[in-house]
Amino acid sequence: MAKRRKRGDGSVHLRKDGRWEGRVVIGYDDNGYPKTKNVLAKNKKECLQKLKVLKDSLKKVELERLSSDMCFGAWLDHWYQNQCKPTIGAKTQTDYEERSRPIVCSSDFSGMEDSRSSSVRGCSA
């Protein structure tokens, strides 16, 4: 029986033409469908190496988008647009947008001396 790959590792399979294809999800579009990138190789080992290089290059892009000095409002907006919005219904989207708009839009965080994401620990939605 074949071993199961971990979540986020992508998939590897043999195509009908004899080549190996590795595929990884890079994000989701506005309708919630996954956006993927793929690599092709003549053998499985080479395909796994190419897939690892592809995933590593995608991690660098993701790290550039999220920086340690990002304020909480910017982080919340990034999380909502990329992680949450593709998976929730229209009414929930409206509710989340109404509740998060004051946080994202305000530059004055009353009561918070340091509003960077590194100072906000244990916050999850």
Written account of the structure:
There is one protein chain. By secondary structure, the protein is α+β, with helices and mostly antiparallel strands. Helix content is 41%, strand content 17%. It contains 3 helices and 3 strands, in the order E-E-E-H-H-H. The chain has helices at residues 44-65, 72-84, 90-105, and strands at residues 11-14, 20-28, 34-41. Strands 1-2-3 form a 3-stranded antiparallel beta sheet, with helices on one face. Helix 2 packs antiparallel against helix 3. The protein is elongated, with a radius of gyration of 19 Å.
Give the strand order, joined by hyphens, for the main sheet. 1-2-3
Topology order in helix (H) and strand (E) letters:
EEEHHH
**Class derived from helix and strand content:** alpha+beta
Strand content: 15-25%
- Number of strand elements: 3
Low-confidence stretches: 107-125
Tell me the distance between the termini: 38 Å
List the helices and strands and how they pair.
Layout: E1 11-14, E2 20-28, E3 34-41, H1 44-65, H2 72-84, H3 90-105
Helix pairs in contact: 2-3
In short:
By secondary structure, the chain is of the alpha+beta class. 41% of the residues lie in helices and 17% in strands. It contains 3 helices and 3 strands.
